[in-house]
Amino acid sequence: MTYREIAMWEILEVLRRVGRGESKSAVARTTGHSRMTVRRYVRTAVELGWELGAEEPSEELAAQVYARHRPASERSPGEAEARLLGHRDQIKQWLKPGPTEKRGLRLTKVHELLRRRNVQVPYSTLYRFAVKHCGFSDRRRVTVRKADCEPGELAEIDFGRLGLIPSPETGRRRTAWALIVTLGHSRHLYVHTTFSQKIHHLIEGLEDAWSFFGGCTRRVVVDNLKTAIIKADRYDPIFQRTFEEYARYRGFIIDPAPPYMPTGKPIVERAVPYVRDNFFRGESWMDLDHVQREAIRWCLQTAGTRIHGTTRKRPLAVFENVEREQLLPLTRERYDPPTWAECKVHPDHHINFGKALYSVPTRYIRQQVWVRADSGLVRIYADGSLIKTHPRQEPGGRSTDYDDYPAELTPYALRDPQRIIRQATELSSDIGRFMEQLLSGTLPWTKIRQAQKLLRLSKKYGEHRVASACRRALAFELINVRRVESILLKDLDQLELPIAQDAAVIPIETRFLRSPRSFSHSPTKESDS
Known about the structure:
This protein is 39% helix and 15% strand. The protein is an alpha+beta fold. The strands form 4 sheets. A 5-stranded mixed sheet has the order 3-2-1-4-7, sandwiched between helices. A 4-stranded antiparallel sheet has the order 8-11-12-13, with no helix packed on it. A 3-stranded mixed sheet has the order 9-10-14, with no helix packed on it. The model has no long low-confidence stretch (mean pLDDT 85).
């Protein structure tokens, strides 16, 4: 005899009819139960404290009667379960981890192996059988739905792989990624396509998204991207320096999802396959710009106008009517994402950043400094203080502030003869005149080292002696610093000059004057003499 399970509502109907005074036979005919079943339900209800005819039976009373008369859970297996019982040991063996493995076969693989053995059962039946008879752990947990967020409060972002598209720069196909930004309240979304997931492309995509929405949310939930989260932690994550600076610039709070938990950002998580399957797949694409143009059109005309499966509303309509006005306004200009790097100051007073050179003052040589560079400026920090600012240079370029060099090396680095002449003139007019003669000509910087040596001689021997030596060298037209040094070493600067400094030079009458024929090189014969 097959048992038919009775629902609580049927028991409640029986008790109500009996309580109104109907006979048990009439109740049995009306409800389809036997008189014995009706009497059993009434007797159990009375035992539970029900006063027949005095009060209306309640649902709680009917549920208690139902619990008393509910049969045991052990029933004969169904047809599909009976077929699986003959393979129970084999299923256990498949699900059991091997000696060198952490887990056994997946249940989907077991389902496929059973199909090869001509055991055709639904996957749901196999799952219930494995949990009941094979010790398969039911990892499903009890979950709760969080309260809906306020308009303008939340945006969830994530990267999703789209597929291969042509790249005109390389002539080959490259993998395109989609940065998907989904608003938590309206479910309106924006898709930014890119070939890279670096921090600059992440911020560029967010800036385009805020421009698309007309504002910024107060909280942004991000996946644990390496470009945004340096160290993923459930309670104390470490943010990437540039991304944290960008969050302060725009005024939103970074809310990273827990590691290895897609349910931490469920709204955008379900949007990734939707974007890939509904928008990208099955289409022909020319380049990345083509994909981006069509993505914006798709967000407005397709994704924004559909009936969302959860909210049962059109995302674009909810966004326009409710959420747009609650977003943070974009009062500041578009963010220029910087790059941070730690560099060492080399002995030549420069750091190498972005394959370009930037000068730093002498006192920071061989020290580590931090560099912050955006599209326009390069800022150099030491011990948290700004020490230098340079305009951004292209790779191979150089930005040098010659005031960073020591004062004695600046003229040599600048190749500025006039600066050295001014320094020499400040010491003495004679030294200045000698320096001016020394550095005259078309290539004066070829003698800058001699000029530096002359300045050093004034420190070694004194300005007065060097001035006298220069005056004597000028009198004899000896424009050579080594000759000046020789005059100082031999104390010739102490002697009086043979002629006045400003006297004209009188040429000496030539002696042993020869005829022009003596300079002829043509050979002569003895007969011609």
